[in-house]
Amino acid sequence: MDQTEIFEKVVKILTPYVKNQQALEGVSLATHILDDLKVNSARLVDVVLEFEDAFDIEIDDDDVDKVETVGNAVELIEAKIG
Amino acid sequence: MALRPIAPLPAGARRRLVLQREFSRLLSPLAIPLIGIALRWVLGYRIEGLQDFRREYRRICLERNGPVMICANHLTMIDSVVIAWALGSPWWYFRHFRTLPWNIPERSIFAATPYMRVLVYALKCLPVERGGNRAEVTEVLTQLTHAVSNCEVALIFPEAGRSRTGRVNPDSAASGVGRIYRSIPDCRVVCVYLRGDHQDDYSDMPARGERFRGSISVAELKTDYRGLRASRDIAHQIAQRLAEMEQEYFDDRQ
Questions:
Q1: Mutating which of A35, A45, A57 best tests the B interface, going by the most B Cβ atoms within 10 A?
Q2: Cα–Cα distance, B77 to B110 (Å, whole number)
Q3: Out of A49, A59, A62, whose CB is closest to B232?
Protein backbone atom coordinates (compact mmCIF):
# COMPACT_ATOMS: atom_id res chain seq x y z
CA MET A 1 0.00 0.00 0.00
CA ASP A 2 1.55 3.32 -1.01
CA GLN A 3 1.52 6.60 0.91
CA THR A 4 -1.33 8.06 -1.17
CA GLU A 5 -3.58 5.12 -0.44
CA ILE A 6 -2.79 5.30 3.29
CA PHE A 7 -3.40 9.06 3.26
CA GLU A 8 -6.81 8.65 1.61
CA LYS A 9 -7.81 5.94 4.05
CA VAL A 10 -6.63 8.03 7.02
CA VAL A 11 -8.67 11.02 5.86
CA LYS A 12 -11.72 8.81 5.38
CA ILE A 13 -11.37 7.51 8.95
CA LEU A 14 -10.87 11.02 10.32
CA THR A 15 -13.86 12.53 8.51
CA PRO A 16 -16.64 11.62 11.00
CA TYR A 17 -14.55 13.12 13.86
CA VAL A 18 -13.73 16.39 12.11
CA LYS A 19 -15.50 19.50 13.41
CA ASN A 20 -13.93 21.90 10.94
CA GLN A 21 -15.22 20.54 7.63
CA GLN A 22 -13.67 23.48 5.72
CA ALA A 23 -10.20 22.40 6.79
CA LEU A 24 -10.99 18.95 5.51
CA GLU A 25 -11.33 20.32 1.96
CA GLY A 26 -7.68 21.37 1.90
CA VAL A 27 -6.32 18.53 3.99
CA SER A 28 -2.67 17.60 3.47
CA LEU A 29 0.07 15.73 5.30
CA ALA A 30 0.84 18.93 7.25
CA THR A 31 -2.72 19.38 8.51
CA HIS A 32 -2.85 19.33 12.30
CA ILE A 33 -5.49 16.89 13.50
CA LEU A 34 -6.46 18.75 16.68
CA ASP A 35 -5.71 22.37 15.78
CA ASP A 36 -6.82 22.44 12.12
CA LEU A 37 -9.41 19.69 11.85
CA LYS A 38 -10.65 20.35 15.42
CA VAL A 39 -10.90 16.68 16.29
CA ASN A 40 -11.68 16.35 20.01
CA SER A 41 -8.47 15.28 21.78
CA ALA A 42 -10.41 12.77 23.87
CA ARG A 43 -11.57 11.10 20.65
CA LEU A 44 -8.12 10.75 19.14
CA VAL A 45 -7.76 7.29 20.67
CA ASP A 46 -10.94 6.19 18.89
CA VAL A 47 -9.46 7.42 15.63
CA VAL A 48 -6.23 5.52 16.25
CA LEU A 49 -8.16 2.37 17.12
CA GLU A 50 -9.92 2.68 13.77
CA PHE A 51 -6.48 2.91 12.13
CA GLU A 52 -5.60 -0.36 13.87
CA ASP A 53 -8.67 -2.09 12.48
CA ALA A 54 -8.43 -0.62 9.00
CA PHE A 55 -4.75 -1.40 8.51
CA ASP A 56 -4.59 -4.52 10.69
CA ILE A 57 -1.80 -3.14 12.86
CA GLU A 58 -1.22 -2.60 16.59
CA ILE A 59 -0.33 0.88 17.84
CA ASP A 60 1.22 1.42 21.28
CA ASP A 61 -0.31 3.83 23.80
CA ASP A 62 2.72 6.09 23.63
CA ASP A 63 2.64 6.25 19.83
CA VAL A 64 -0.68 8.08 20.04
CA ASP A 65 1.15 11.02 21.61
CA LYS A 66 3.28 11.31 18.47
CA VAL A 67 0.29 11.66 16.15
CA GLU A 68 -0.22 15.41 15.73
CA THR A 69 -0.60 15.82 11.97
CA VAL A 70 -2.17 13.71 9.26
CA GLY A 71 1.41 13.10 8.05
CA ASN A 72 2.41 11.73 11.48
CA ALA A 73 -0.47 9.25 11.26
CA VAL A 74 0.47 8.22 7.73
CA GLU A 75 4.14 7.76 8.72
CA LEU A 76 3.21 5.74 11.79
CA ILE A 77 0.96 3.45 9.76
CA GLU A 78 3.58 3.07 7.02
CA ALA A 79 6.15 2.05 9.64
CA LYS A 80 3.78 -0.48 11.21
CA ILE A 81 2.79 -2.00 7.87
CA GLY A 82 6.50 -2.31 7.11
CA MET B 1 -4.15 -7.26 32.83
CA ALA B 2 -0.86 -6.11 31.35
CA LEU B 3 0.50 -2.92 32.85
CA ARG B 4 1.99 -0.31 30.59
CA PRO B 5 5.34 0.92 31.90
CA ILE B 6 5.27 4.30 33.59
CA ALA B 7 7.10 6.95 31.59
CA PRO B 8 10.19 8.30 33.35
CA LEU B 9 9.73 11.69 34.98
CA PRO B 10 12.66 14.06 34.40
CA ALA B 11 14.52 15.02 37.57
CA GLY B 12 13.43 18.66 37.24
CA ALA B 13 9.75 17.74 37.00
CA ARG B 14 10.13 15.39 39.97
CA ARG B 15 11.66 18.17 42.06
CA ARG B 16 8.88 20.57 41.05
CA LEU B 17 6.29 18.03 42.09
CA VAL B 18 7.88 17.53 45.52
CA LEU B 19 8.26 21.28 45.99
CA GLN B 20 4.61 21.89 45.13
CA ARG B 21 3.45 19.16 47.50
CA GLU B 22 5.48 20.61 50.37
CA PHE B 23 4.33 24.16 49.63
CA SER B 24 0.75 22.95 49.61
CA ARG B 25 1.28 20.97 52.81
CA LEU B 26 2.66 24.08 54.49
CA LEU B 27 -0.40 26.15 53.57
CA SER B 28 -2.96 23.41 54.10
CA PRO B 29 -3.66 24.05 57.83
CA LEU B 30 -4.90 27.49 56.78
CA ALA B 31 -6.22 26.88 53.24
CA ILE B 32 -8.32 23.77 53.87
CA PRO B 33 -10.35 25.12 56.82
CA LEU B 34 -10.88 28.41 54.95
CA ILE B 35 -12.24 26.55 51.92
CA GLY B 36 -14.49 24.50 54.19
CA ILE B 37 -15.82 27.68 55.81
CA ALA B 38 -16.42 29.26 52.40
CA LEU B 39 -18.32 26.23 51.12
CA ARG B 40 -20.39 25.71 54.25
CA TRP B 41 -21.01 29.21 55.56
CA VAL B 42 -20.55 31.56 52.62
CA LEU B 43 -22.09 29.43 49.86
CA GLY B 44 -24.32 27.51 52.26
CA TYR B 45 -23.53 24.05 50.86
CA ARG B 46 -24.40 20.90 52.77
CA ILE B 47 -23.60 17.29 52.06
CA GLU B 48 -26.14 14.66 53.00
CA GLY B 49 -24.40 11.86 54.91
CA LEU B 50 -21.15 13.80 55.16
CA GLN B 51 -19.83 11.64 57.99
CA ASP B 52 -20.59 8.44 56.06
CA PHE B 53 -18.69 9.78 53.05
CA ARG B 54 -15.70 10.64 55.19
CA ARG B 55 -15.81 7.36 57.11
CA GLU B 56 -15.80 5.35 53.89
CA TYR B 57 -12.93 7.38 52.42
CA ARG B 58 -10.95 6.97 55.64
CA ARG B 59 -11.59 3.23 55.53
CA ILE B 60 -10.39 2.99 51.93
CA CYS B 61 -7.26 5.05 52.60
CA LEU B 62 -6.32 3.28 55.82
CA GLU B 63 -7.17 -0.21 54.58
CA ARG B 64 -4.06 -0.24 52.43
CA ASN B 65 -1.36 2.36 51.94
CA GLY B 66 -1.37 2.12 48.15
CA PRO B 67 -2.11 4.25 45.13
CA VAL B 68 -5.64 5.61 44.89
CA MET B 69 -7.33 7.35 42.00
CA ILE B 70 -10.67 9.02 42.60
CA CYS B 71 -12.93 9.13 39.57
CA ALA B 72 -16.01 11.33 39.77
CA ASN B 73 -18.89 12.70 37.79
CA HIS B 74 -18.45 16.29 36.67
CA LEU B 75 -21.21 18.91 36.60
CA THR B 76 -19.78 22.18 37.93
CA MET B 77 -16.47 24.01 37.89
CA ILE B 78 -15.89 23.53 41.60
CA ASP B 79 -16.64 19.80 41.77
CA SER B 80 -13.09 18.93 42.77
CA VAL B 81 -13.26 21.31 45.75
CA VAL B 82 -16.67 20.03 46.86
CA ILE B 83 -15.51 16.42 46.52
CA ALA B 84 -12.35 17.03 48.57
CA TRP B 85 -14.51 18.70 51.23
CA ALA B 86 -16.91 15.73 51.19
CA LEU B 87 -14.14 13.19 51.58
CA GLY B 88 -12.18 14.58 54.48
CA SER B 89 -12.14 17.06 57.34
CA PRO B 90 -9.31 19.58 57.70
CA TRP B 91 -7.97 17.53 60.60
CA TRP B 92 -7.97 14.36 58.48
CA TYR B 93 -6.06 16.08 55.67
CA PHE B 94 -3.67 17.60 58.18
CA ARG B 95 -2.81 14.12 59.47
CA HIS B 96 -2.98 12.33 56.10
CA PHE B 97 -1.96 14.98 53.61
CA ARG B 98 -1.36 12.45 50.84
CA THR B 99 -5.12 11.82 50.72
CA LEU B 100 -5.85 15.41 49.64
CA PRO B 101 -6.32 14.75 45.92
CA TRP B 102 -4.18 16.15 43.14
CA ASN B 103 -6.21 17.71 40.33
CA ILE B 104 -5.62 18.51 36.68
CA PRO B 105 -7.81 21.57 36.00
CA GLU B 106 -8.07 23.34 32.66
CA ARG B 107 -5.29 25.94 32.58
CA SER B 108 -7.16 28.57 30.57
CA ILE B 109 -9.90 28.67 33.23
CA PHE B 110 -8.21 27.92 36.54
CA ALA B 111 -4.75 29.34 35.99
CA ALA B 112 -5.59 32.34 33.86
CA THR B 113 -4.15 34.99 36.21
CA PRO B 114 -1.06 35.02 38.46
CA TYR B 115 -3.30 35.04 41.53
CA MET B 116 -5.18 31.95 40.32
CA ARG B 117 -1.94 30.22 39.41
CA VAL B 118 -0.71 30.60 42.98
CA LEU B 119 -4.03 29.41 44.34
CA VAL B 120 -4.20 26.26 42.21
CA TYR B 121 -0.52 25.60 42.89
CA ALA B 122 -1.22 25.66 46.60
CA LEU B 123 -4.18 23.33 46.16
CA LYS B 124 -2.28 20.44 44.57
CA CYS B 125 -3.38 21.26 41.05
CA LEU B 126 -1.42 20.54 37.89
CA PRO B 127 -3.08 22.78 35.29
CA VAL B 128 -3.27 21.34 31.80
CA GLU B 129 -4.42 22.70 28.46
CA ARG B 130 -6.81 20.09 27.12
CA GLY B 131 -6.14 19.44 23.49
CA GLY B 132 -3.02 21.59 23.79
CA ASN B 133 0.61 20.78 23.16
CA ARG B 134 0.84 17.00 23.38
CA ALA B 135 4.26 16.98 25.03
CA GLU B 136 3.04 19.31 27.80
CA VAL B 137 -0.15 17.29 28.34
CA THR B 138 1.92 14.11 28.51
CA GLU B 139 4.30 15.66 31.05
CA VAL B 140 1.43 16.73 33.31
CA LEU B 141 -0.18 13.29 33.10
CA THR B 142 3.20 11.70 33.83
CA GLN B 143 3.58 13.94 36.89
CA LEU B 144 0.14 12.91 38.07
CA THR B 145 0.91 9.25 37.46
CA HIS B 146 4.11 9.53 39.48
CA ALA B 147 2.29 11.24 42.32
CA VAL B 148 -0.30 8.46 42.48
CA SER B 149 2.29 5.72 42.19
CA ASN B 150 3.95 7.29 45.24
CA CYS B 151 0.74 6.71 47.20
CA GLU B 152 -0.68 10.19 46.71
CA VAL B 153 -4.32 10.46 45.63
CA ALA B 154 -5.52 11.96 42.34
CA LEU B 155 -8.98 13.12 41.37
CA ILE B 156 -9.88 12.66 37.73
CA PHE B 157 -13.06 13.24 35.80
CA PRO B 158 -13.23 10.37 33.30
CA GLU B 159 -15.46 12.36 30.96
CA ALA B 160 -12.63 14.95 30.74
CA GLY B 161 -15.17 17.75 31.00
CA ARG B 162 -18.53 18.56 32.52
CA SER B 163 -21.34 16.21 31.46
CA ARG B 164 -23.00 18.24 28.74
CA THR B 165 -26.31 16.41 29.08
CA GLY B 166 -26.22 16.55 32.88
CA ARG B 167 -25.86 12.77 32.90
CA VAL B 168 -22.78 10.56 32.86
CA ASN B 169 -22.17 9.20 29.38
CA PRO B 170 -19.91 6.12 29.48
CA ASP B 171 -19.22 6.47 25.77
CA SER B 172 -17.65 9.87 26.33
CA ALA B 173 -15.00 8.55 28.74
CA ALA B 174 -11.52 9.65 27.70
CA SER B 175 -9.05 6.80 27.60
CA GLY B 176 -6.44 8.88 29.46
CA VAL B 177 -7.84 7.71 32.78
CA GLY B 178 -7.38 4.12 31.62
CA ARG B 179 -3.81 4.84 30.60
CA ILE B 180 -3.00 6.27 34.01
CA TYR B 181 -4.66 3.33 35.76
CA ARG B 182 -2.72 0.83 33.67
CA SER B 183 0.56 2.55 34.52
CA ILE B 184 0.18 2.18 38.26
CA PRO B 185 0.56 -1.27 39.79
CA ASP B 186 -2.01 -2.09 42.45
CA CYS B 187 -3.95 1.14 41.90
CA ARG B 188 -7.43 1.30 43.39
CA VAL B 189 -10.12 3.37 41.72
CA VAL B 190 -12.60 5.04 44.02
CA CYS B 191 -15.74 6.19 42.22
CA VAL B 192 -17.46 9.21 43.72
CA TYR B 193 -20.87 10.36 42.56
CA LEU B 194 -21.98 13.69 43.99
CA ARG B 195 -24.81 15.90 42.81
CA GLY B 196 -26.72 18.88 44.13
CA ASP B 197 -30.49 18.58 44.49
CA HIS B 198 -30.98 21.54 42.12
CA GLN B 199 -28.39 20.43 39.60
CA ASP B 200 -30.51 19.57 36.54
CA ASP B 201 -27.78 20.22 34.03
CA TYR B 202 -24.12 21.24 34.01
CA SER B 203 -23.27 24.73 35.26
CA ASP B 204 -20.38 26.89 36.43
CA MET B 205 -21.34 26.81 40.10
CA PRO B 206 -23.80 24.82 42.18
CA ALA B 207 -26.79 26.82 43.42
CA ARG B 208 -26.26 28.79 46.64
CA GLY B 209 -27.43 26.77 49.64
CA GLU B 210 -27.23 23.57 47.58
CA ARG B 211 -27.63 20.21 49.28
CA PHE B 212 -25.43 17.46 47.80
CA ARG B 213 -26.09 13.76 47.88
CA GLY B 214 -24.20 10.86 46.44
CA SER B 215 -22.18 7.75 47.04
CA ILE B 216 -18.67 6.37 47.05
CA SER B 217 -17.47 2.92 46.04
CA VAL B 218 -14.33 1.09 44.98
CA ALA B 219 -14.53 -0.06 41.36
CA GLU B 220 -13.46 -3.56 40.38
CA LEU B 221 -11.74 -3.24 37.03
CA LYS B 222 -10.57 -5.95 34.69
CA THR B 223 -9.89 -6.13 30.99
CA ASP B 224 -8.77 -8.77 28.55
CA TYR B 225 -7.77 -6.19 25.97
CA ARG B 226 -4.26 -4.96 25.36
CA GLY B 227 -2.77 -1.56 24.57
CA LEU B 228 -5.06 1.28 23.63
CA ARG B 229 -8.16 -0.90 23.74
CA ALA B 230 -7.38 -1.84 27.33
CA SER B 231 -7.12 1.85 28.28
CA ARG B 232 -10.38 2.64 26.56
CA ASP B 233 -12.11 -0.36 28.12
CA ILE B 234 -10.96 0.60 31.63
CA ALA B 235 -12.10 4.21 31.11
CA HIS B 236 -15.46 2.95 29.89
CA GLN B 237 -15.86 0.64 32.90
CA ILE B 238 -15.16 3.52 35.30
CA ALA B 239 -17.65 5.80 33.59
CA GLN B 240 -20.15 2.95 33.47
CA ARG B 241 -19.80 2.51 37.24
CA LEU B 242 -20.44 6.25 37.68
CA ALA B 243 -23.51 5.97 35.44
CA GLU B 244 -24.81 3.15 37.67
CA MET B 245 -24.22 5.26 40.77
CA GLU B 246 -26.09 8.07 39.06
CA GLN B 247 -29.02 5.77 38.40
CA GLU B 248 -29.01 4.75 42.10
CA TYR B 249 -28.99 8.46 43.01
CA PHE B 250 -32.11 9.14 40.95
CA ASP B 251 -33.81 5.94 42.10
CA ASP B 252 -33.25 6.97 45.74
CA ARG B 253 -34.77 10.37 45.12
CA GLN B 254 -38.01 8.99 43.72
A1: A45
A2: 9
A3: A49
Q: Which fold has domain A3-81?
A: 1.10.1200
- Note whether B172 contacts A42, CB cutoff 8 Å: yes
**CA–CA dist B82, B103 (Å, integer):** 13
Residues making up chain B, counted from first to last: 254
- Fold that domain B11-253 belongs to in CATH: Glycerol-3-phosphate (1)-acyltransferase (3.40.1130)
For B17-70, the pLDDT digits (tens) are: 999 999 999 999 999 999 999 999 999 999 999 999 999 999 999 998 889 999
**Mind listing the pLDDT tens digit for each residue in A13-25?**
999 999 998 888 8
Which of the four pLDDT bands, split at 50, 70 and 90, describes residue B134?
confident
Instruction: Flag whether residue B138 sits within 8 Å of chain A, measured between CB atoms.
Output: yes
B108: chain A residues, CB-CB within 8 Å: none
Per-residue pLDDT reduced to its tens digit, B179-212: 999 999 899 999 999 999 999 999 999 999 999 9
The residue extents of the domains of chain B are 11-253
Q: Is the pTM of this model over 0.95?
A: no
A65: closest chain B residue by CA = B134
Q: Which of B143, B227, B128, B239 is nearest to B179 (CA)?
A: B227
| SS3 assignment for chain B | CCCCCCCCCCHHHHHHHHHHHHHHHHHHHHHHHHHHHHHHHHCCCEECCHHHHHHHHHHHHHHCCCCEEEEECCCCCCHHHHHHHHHCCHHHHHHCHHHCCEECCEHHHHCCCHHHHHHHHHCCECCECCCCCHHHHHHHHHHHHHHHHCCCEEEECCCCCCCCCCCCCHHHCCCHHHHHHHHCCCCEEEEEEEEECCCCCCCCCCCCCCEEEEEEEEECCCCCCCHHHHHHHHHHHHHHHHHHHHHHHHHHHC
Q: Is the pLDDT confidence value at B2 over 70?
A: no
